[in-house]
Design a protein that fits this description.
By secondary structure, the protein is mostly helical. It contains 18 helices and no strands. The protein has 3 domains: 19-242, no CATH class; 249-329; 334-471, no CATH class.
Length: 474
């Protein structure tokens, strides 16, 4: 989000949050979120992609709602009306093509109205088909889950994204030779995918609350949290959405303060550190180990301030709109071990993977006919979970190694805790309260995480290994 986005979103959120009518508040959040998903989407070299990618995101959201909503929970006429409102908003964005340059909500001119109408009719037919499939089996849920995962893999893999761009360029009559992975820049899809998969999974386990189409679409594409989280839960979000709470001056001050603090962290501190932070351009230019450590420390500070700054902005804007988004960071670099770090770094993502991958995988291993020892279950589950979190950031070897690095760290910590617990009867109680040892633990954890950032910041295994060698004078 730019400063203009933040300013407009803050104003809109305040106007919505101060509304006396809770019904209009719901419609305001839906409308603002639908329009924001188009406004935030960056331009791409592929013609009209900045319109079609947000439109497909909306379509996927509606598909998942059709496949998961509870029958007879809401009036069918009101749901159809909501769908028509969303379609009208999409058409309204498309109609801006007839305005002069600079008045388009999307970054480039939208496609023709006829193409948009055909697409909307097609999406409507798919929704009807999903409704019919739902009556017979859970096939629709599985198809949607595989579709979302497939799209995620495509946009996160450079090679697959390039192929997708080439196909799109052929479809739009552009030169396929110019295709690149950067053409498929789908804003917020990583977070949207986790929200959609969360509801698909909760539907199969019976934990998904009854949500109207208006509530569900607002939850999935809620404009403050669209670009960088946090990843809220549907049941928690809808409680705030349904609460007839009107924000007061206190909420405005709290939300505004949080926004200003987040902007300072992002645009002043993080952007300043980005000048010297470790990246592929300066990684081999620095010969001194000391200066390379400074670059790495700058990157560690930059990525925290950048990410947590965006979270502060999202939480602040959400508070202005009457939605209390969950916290995502809690002083992670001051934690004494790697488990505490991951309980305070990108908290909502860590909780998501713990609930929907780590816990089910652990239960699967424990119930397997081939009995595994407890240490092996923990090893496989932690390594797999962290590897998946690494690949969630991008399907590259470096992100995979970064995930494995943290998985190994978590496993080693688990074994160390078990070792100390088995000998707790002979260890002095003062060991656990010694300030010097606690400070050393914080320092060790910080450097373990910081060294891991080398894999995250650089694009290639070879370059990462070279930098790691130079950091330690090799």
């Amino acid at each position: 989000m730019s400063l203009i986005h933040v300013s407009v979103f803050s104003l809109v959120a305040t106007l919505i949050g101060t509304s006396r009518n809770s019904r209009w508040r719901g419609w305001g959040l839906l409308t603002g979120s639908v329009l924001a998903i188009y406004w935030l989407q960056p331009a791409t070299p592929v013609r009209h992609f900045d319109f079609w990618l947000p439109t497909i995101a909306l379509a996927l959201t509606i598909f998942v709602w059709v496949a998961t909503h509870r029958k007879r929970s809401f009036d069918i006429r009101s749901e159809i009306f909501t769908a028509l409102v969303i379609a009208a908003l999409v058409l309204g964005v498309g109609f801006t093509r007839y305005l002069t340059i600079g008045w388009h909500l999307t970054q480039t001119r939208p496609p023709s109205t006829l193409n948009i109408l055909v697409a909307l009719i097609g999406f409507g037919l798919i929704s009807f088909l999903l409704l019919r499939i739902r009556r017979e089996s859970r096939l629709g849920l599985w198809l949607l889950a595989f579709l979302i995962l497939g799209l995620f893999i495509i946009i996160k893999s450079d090679q697959l994204a390039t192929w997708a761009s080439r196909a799109a360029r052929v479809w739009t009559g552009q030169f396929p030779e110019l295709a690149s992975s950067a053409d498929v820049s789908w804003l917020g899809f990583s977070y949207l995918a986790l929200r959609l998969l969360h509801t698909l999974r909760d539907q199969t386990t019976g934990r998904l609350p009854a949500l109207s189409l208006q509530e569900y679409v607002t939850y999935v594409i809620f404009f403050p949290a669209l670009t960088a989280g946090p990843i809220d839960r549907a049941d928690r979000f809808v409680r705030d959405l349904r609460a007839a709470r009107r924000i007061t001056a206190v909420h405005v001050v709290e939300g505004g303060t949080r926004i200003v603090f987040g902007l300072f962290k992002k645009f002043v501190l993080a952007d300043s550190l980005a000048i010297i932070a470790l990246n592929s351009a300066n990684a081999l230019q620095v010969k001194s180990s000391l200066w390379l450590w400074i670059l790495l420390y700058a990157y560690a500070a930059q990525i925290y301030l950048d990410f947590s700054g965006y979270t502060d902005v999202a939480v602040g804007i959400g508070r202005l709109a009457g939605i209390e988004l969950p916290e995502n960071f809690d002083r992670p670099y001051l934690k004494p071990n790697i488990v505490a770090f991951w309980n305070s770094w990108h908290i909502t993502m860590a909780k998501w993977f713990r609930a929907y991958f780590f816990n089910p995988l652990t239960r699967f291993f424990l119930r397997s006919k081939h009995k595994l020892s407890p240490w092996m279950v923990i090893f496989l589950a932690q390594l797999s979970t962290m590897a998946l979190i690494g690949l969630w950031h991008g399907v590259t070897w470096n992100f995979l190694v970064w995930g494995i690095w943290h998985g190994l760290g978590l496993y080693i910590h688990n074994r160390w805790v078990a070792f100390l617990k088995a000998r707790s009867h002979v260890l002095p109680p003062s060991l656990y309260s010694n300030r010097g040892l606690k400070a050393a633990s914080v320092l060790l954890t910080f450097h373990f995480v910081t060294i891991g950032w080398v894999w995250f910041a650089l694009p290639e295994i070879g370059l990462s290994m070279t930098v790691l060698g130079r950091l330690f004078g090799m």
